[in-house]
Amino acid sequence: MNHDPGKPTDLRARRRREQRRLFWIVAVFLVLVGSVAIALAYDLSAAALGLVCLLTGAGVLGLLWLILLLIERLAR
Which residues, at least 6 apart from 61, have a Cβ–Cβ distance to it below 8 Å? Predict the structure, then answer.
């Protein structure tokens, strides 16, 4: 990264960007890799049901992330 040594860095904004990026990586990994693993172990009809369950799990993960984000904003 090319950072100007005289320019201040916003570490909180960087942390928020990194957390958002990691959340999306985990959610996509959960859904895609989980669906492929189910499809390989069973069949495509089981993978379709598994995909619905994995998307629900990713939605719960997103809901928890939003709740924590709201708590963080209220704490400021």
Answer: 23, 26, 27, 30
